[in-house]
Design a protein that fits this description.
The chain is mainly β. It has two domains: about 5-90, Elongation Factor Tu (Ef-tu), domain 3; about 105-170, SH3 type barrels (Roll). The protein is about 10% helix and about 45% strand. The strands form two sheets. A six-stranded antiparallel barrel has the order 1-2-5-4-3-6. A hairpin with a 2-residue loop joins β4 (about 50-60) and β5. The longest helix has 5 residues, at about 35.
Amino acid sequence: MPEQDVLIPVGKIIGTQGIKGQVKVYSYSGNLDSLRAAHTVVLKSPGGDCSTHELNSVAPHAGKIVLGLKEFTDINQVLGFVGSEICLLRSQLPETGEDEYYWRDLLGLEVVTTDGSVIGPIVDIFETGSNDVYVVRGREREHLIPAVASVISSVDLNSGRMVITPLEGLLDL
């Protein structure tokens, strides 16, 4: 599958909103711009079935996002979507800036220190408010690596490698 056709999960439907067929979405990034720019979304059910739907509206609401899908006007029509992921095609996402990456691109990168020690792959990423944190699975345990410029020396997506300069004691925690 060409890279631009890859589905990127951007959120999850956690409930319905009102009675007019809108859904409440937990956004993985908190960024509305990608959804507002998209005309369609792909809903991926927990079982893996995918369906494409045209967007009618995108609005923030109480820390979540409320989506309206054009073909649905009643709460009963969207109840079955609860638990589904909202996905966009890679081609629908804006280009990243310098030293900016989509989480999807970072997951699986091999993390090594500037002295060449292999730490392990990035297996998860989470937000802390001030910066993201990469969960790196080492041989004996997981390491939490803050995504800050003083720690991340370089990222090379082509070679699948991230080089870090660990703060004192970071890998001992």
